[in-house]
Amino acid sequence: MSDQAMSAPRQAPVSSTKAPWSLSFLSGPLFGRTLALKLGENWVGSGAQCDVIVPDRDIAPRQLRLSVGQIAVSIQNVGGGEATLNGAALDATRRALRHGDVVEIGPLKLGIVPAAEPRTVAAPDAPSPSRGRLARWAAAPWAAWMASRRFVIGLGVLWGVLVLAGGAYLAIGATDPFWFQASATERMREVRQALHDYPELNVKPTSTGFLVSGYVNALSDRDRVQRIAQTFPQTTVGDVYVIDELLGSARLYFSDTPLTVTYGGHGTLLIGGSGGRSLQQRVANFAKDARPALQVVDRVVYAGAPQTAPKQAPPTAGDVPDIVGVYGDGLGTRFIETSDGARYFEGSRLPGGLEVRQIGNDRVIFARGPDRFFMDVSSAAVHEFIPPPPG
């Protein structure tokens, strides 16, 4: 058997059939789920032989055929019935499917989103016939002398690299002794100055150095932040979120609703527009799932909600006193204690007009009209209290 025939089965398990795309359900029985696609044909239908099975009798056993590649995805409606792609009729003709497109089949809406591309491991080299010649060459008497000479040369090169690295380290310390003589506050100020182009980034001290986190506009900005942080010793990049990606995901989530999604700065996402009461729980679910990346502000005018005139400004952190403790008896009675010694139970109002809507173990929800304001509470501030014995 030839070497080519022997190497073929070794390469088969290396290639991955997982595609860089996932199928996202925007409505229907699988609403909110995201399923990975494979390279090649992916069938969507109600039949058991489909790659994606949808439990809906209105959908054919093989309704949609998705042809998935590394770069593009196409879709065909081969199961009959009415289907639309971004509002246009979809038939058996192959149509391109892009991120952000919405496919609708009766009550079912779906789209595609990018998925993390798996890394492939390089296949091991096939055994070469020349290895036998190399073994005979290594067994020659003069091979040991050549090997020892190369070892000495390699050792000398290694020492040279170490000397150059040490000299560069000493040169940096002599010409710019900032990191050797400055205080932690001065070092942090220097890092912040280097990142002045990104006002929504925070630099916080840690036990080992500094941590950069926050928000940038695009992926290229995050890459640049990574390069800047690498120029400072003991400085690492933590959770740096990309605003374009967050907005894209939020708008896709609300694509089948009349609601609008805008970015309010510093990790705040504003949900606006008007709609039915059924959307309120959906907005609340999104706000819960978006944490800790986003703080969601609900500005939706729901049908049947009482109109407030004039509309007050949304709550801010300055309206809420510092919370020093959260107390509960384990039976549903909870209250918060602020830095001024006042205590507020669920349903009570603060002097600024905010209502204590809900007290949880990790955060407190305040409300002012249709607006919601979330404040995190550290675990150290949560306590249990023992009510006094009856009279």
TrEMBL record:
Membrane-spanning residues: 151-172
* Residue span(s) of domain YscD cytoplasmic: 25-115
Q: Which Pfam families match?
A: Y4YQ_C (PF23893), Yop-YscD_cpl (PF16697)
Q: Sorted alphabetically, which keywords does the UniProt record give? A: Membrane, Transmembrane, Transmembrane helix
Kindly indicate whether the keyword Ion transport belongs to this entry: no
Q: Domain YscD/Y4YQ C-terminal: where?
A: 338-370
Q: Does the record's keyword annotation contain Membrane? A: yes
Report what the protein is called. Answer: EscD/YscD/HrpQ family type III secretion system inner membrane ring protein
Species source reads Trinickia dinghuensis
Lineage of the source organism? Bacteria, Pseudomonadati, Pseudomonadota, Betaproteobacteria, Burkholderiales
